[in-house]
Amino acid sequence: SVSRPPAIQEVRLQLPVVAEEQKIMEAVHNNNLVVVYGATGSGKTTQVPQFLYEAGYGSANSPTPGMIGVTQPRRVAAVSMAKRVGDEMGDHGKRVAYQIRFEGTVGAETAIKFMTDGVLLREVAQDIALRKYSAIIIDEAHERSVNTDILIGMLSRVVKLREEMAAEDDSIKPLKLIIMSATLRITDFTQNKTLFSDPPPVLQAEGRQFPVTNHFARRTHHDYVEDTFRKISKGHKKLPPGGILVFLTGQNEITQLSKKLKEAFRIGHTATGPQVRISGKDAPMEAEDVDFGEAMDDNNDDYDDDEVDITVDDEDFKLEGEEEESGPAKMHILPLYSLLPTREQLRVFEPPPDGSRLIVLATNVAETSLTIPGIRYVFDCGRSKERKYDRTTGVQSFEVGWISKASASQRAGRAGRTGPGHCYRLYSSAVYERDFQEFAEPEILRMPIEGVVLQLKAMNLQHIVNFPFPTPPDRQSLASSEKLLTYLSAISPTGQITSTGATMSIFPLSPRFARILLVGHLHNCLPYTIALVAGLSAPDVFLPENQVVPAVAVKEADEYFTSADRIEEDHRNSIRRKFNKVHKDFCFLDDKADAIKLLQVVGEFAHEPTEAWCRDHFVRFKTLKEISLLRKQITDLLKTNITAFAGLKYQEKLDPPTAQQVKALKQMVAAGFIDHVAIRADLAPTPPDMFRKPTRAISVPYLTLFPSHARNGDEEKAVFIHPASPLSHLSPQECPDYIIYSYLQRAVPNPATPDKIPKTRMHALTDIT
Ligand code: ADP
Ligand code: MG
User: Fold this and answer.
1) DSSP assignment string, 635-672
2) Which atom of ligand 1 is nearest to the CA of 210?
3) Helices and strands, counts by H and E, the chain
4) Terminus-to-terminus CA distance in the chain, angstroms?
5) For the chain, what is the radius of gyration of the CA atoms?
6) Does the Cβ of 181 fall within 6 Å of ligand 1?
7) Which ligand has an atom closest to residue 47 CA?
8) Tens digits of residue pLDDT in 560-617
9) Beta pairing class for 738-746 and 760-768
């Protein structure tokens, strides 16, 4: 039996879930499928795996020897929860491990395995009976990520299969499936007849551990980063000791706020941000765990921010009935977002230096699962950045919008994990009541799903509509996914998987990239194709200019331009020149193809895979490290799965491709995206009337093969070159006739100028000549 450290035992006994241990385990004993609902902080994630463990699950000589698998939607949650449960289990701590993409601690003695849901999905594809496991816990099911939804659908079938196998063979045991949720929106699972013919029992743990008081703002400010800055500054001075967790929408905002706070509170910092050291096998990001980097923010060229809300909120941070003791004077500021290396993310779990207050600036990553010790206050901007996807046109955008009431309560819950807490909501209760939906829309309704469809077809499901989705995807996205897969020859016209499709499904790549890979050996290009698709699969290799070049300080009307300002401006200009030169040099093989530029970066990095090189070249070390690992993985998969490539050797360092190879690579990329072609508008059969003659490449209008906008005005039909593309440096006359793009993106509309339609921009891959 497990002997736990006394301090842990004490905390544990107060958790609502622990009071329900017996009921939960009885239900698990009598049913192969159980749903556990408990408010955030009730002890689900840390305790339920231990209940199973103590009941003998995961122990070699018990009747239920397989591992206990626990899924998390995010890497940082998988790693930190494994650590916490390991600590709680004292002398049995070694039996807890984690597995995330490219990194893990699982060994022969592992009994409880925390993993991202993407990891388990790949395991189901390899063994549909999941024989390694005696029980699976799907945690945070309320988040409704695509992976979680697909897993629940698949596991509902795996449970049945194991029941049948167990009935025939005594040595096989049924699989226990436990779905855990922090909200009661579980009827999509429990009342879903295609998913579970009999509704599963729902076990409920009452109440959260510590109370959290919500404070609404009197007014909702338009500029919430500024508002957050004001309120944290004030709160830090007035609030009793305790860490602050701040929810913002993206890395850009976090960097901006961190800088402002550090300046205002005079905290020493380096211009290049935190120094990061991670080892070669350190965790790169999950394919499914894509944070929206600031590269997504930077095309807001229609934005103008004249309208400043000057209302001052009179929040005075007096906590009723609490001691009037203010907190420590120093701030210890840490960022937390998913593009940050895992080790950097894990720093928030360490205690802050003596005499300082921990301030964590986080995105949605911190919304579920995590307990950051010592956090007593949450400041919630009430917004998040979401990928929006237009089903008809395929145009995507990243929009900041209000979160749901369920998310707001998850965020607030982070303040009550290790003691009573307070949540300062930077929006009014009127806005909350009027504009916040009860629950967020499941992700499967907001994303292109050709990858999911290919995976399901590869598992011999011919009619996707028969799959037990918790929420079925929209018919139109299903139809367009099947169309794309047919065109990529992954499925036959009657919807059956082809042998090409089956091979494509083996790779952890989106179907288009998998297809490009399979033609990639032409002209001896294979090592380059591998590097290229690995590069294209990773988000945000490049640091955007606005994060590299320091911003101009805003001057009051009566302030003079000083010599210090002159020095600063020179500094800014020299960085900008260096930035432009680095980008130009990356294009030396080809100045019209983003794809070839990326290949060049991947290639150069392989020759000098250091952080210093990345810093000097304004690219992300973490992302490039991930690309290297993916190159290796793709090479291994090609070797083991395709006989013709059995002799393939992994070449980390490549010589530059020849001109002929560059040309071939561009053609291959184009072939994978031929439906994503845009023609320069003046060459179109019926050129639109654009009124103004473009003076820059980024204002040259292009037309797509399929309409890119639901509206019909000429202005709206056109799409434009993205300012980050090498193509943006051409003169309007040099702009290519045809461009292949990976996707279209619309800028966020500016609330100040609602009539002005933001431009749709192409994320270009290559020109075609
Ligand atoms: P749930 O999954 O229901 O939201 P958890 O099992 O994650 O709840 O956590 C339950 C409680 O265990 C937390 O509220 C906190 O009191 C304690 N706890 C969890 N992780 C840690 C940690 N890393 N440090 C300190 N306390 C923790
Ligand atoms: Mg949890």
Assistant:
1) HHHHHHH-GGGTT----SS-PPPPHHHHHHHHHHHHHH
2) 14
3) 25, 21
4) 70
5) 27
6) no
7) 1
8) 777 888 888 888 899 999 999 999 999 999 999 999 999 999 999 999 999 999 999 9
9) antiparallel
Only one residue has tokens 């982070």, namely: 414
The complex scores an ipTM of 0.99
603, two tokens: 């290639």
Determine contact, residues 766/673, Cβ cutoff 8 Å.
Answer: no
- Position 295 scores a pLDDT of 33
pTM of the predicted model, to two decimals?
0.83
Residue 135 structure tokens: 């029980």
Cα–Cα distance measured from residue 432 to residue 422, given in angstroms and rounded to the nearest whole number: 17
SS3 133: strand
Nearest protein Cα to ligand 1, atom 25: 373
Q: Which residues of 290-319 are buried (b: 16+ CB within 10 A; e: fewer)?
A: ebbbbbbbbbeeeeeeeeeeeeebebebee
Dihedral of CA 195/200/203/207: which sign?
A: positive
- C-alpha distances in Å from residue 101, one per residue of 114, 115, 284, 379: 12, 9, 7, 31
pLDDT given for residue 749 in this prediction: 67
Name the closest-CA residue to atom 7, ligand 1.
45
Q: Is 183 in the pocket of ligand 1 (CB under 6 A)?
A: no
Q: What is the SS3 assignment for 178?
A: strand
Each residue's pLDDT tens digit, 479-503: 989 999 999 999 999 999 999 999 9
- CA nearest neighbour of 329 among 351, 357, 353, 360: 357
Q: Please state the φ and ψ torsions of residue 745, each to the nearest 5 degrees.
A: -140, 130
Q: Is 410 in the pocket of ligand 1 (CB under 6 A)?
A: no
- Extract the tokens encoding 689: 């009337």
Do the Cβ atoms of 742 and 673 come closer than 8 Å?
yes
Q: Helix, strand, or coil here: 561?
A: coil
CA 279 to chain centre: 22
Polymer length in residues for the chain: 769
Mean pLDDT by 10 residues, the chain (769 residues): 88 91 96 93 95 94 93 93 96 96 93 96 91 96 91 95 95 95 84 89 82 90 92 92 95 92 72 33 31 33 26 54 69 92 90 94 90 94 84 70 92 90 93 91 88 91 90 90 93 94 92 92 90 90 85 67 82 92 95 96 96 95 92 93 89 94 95 90 78 85 74 67 94 95 80 73 92
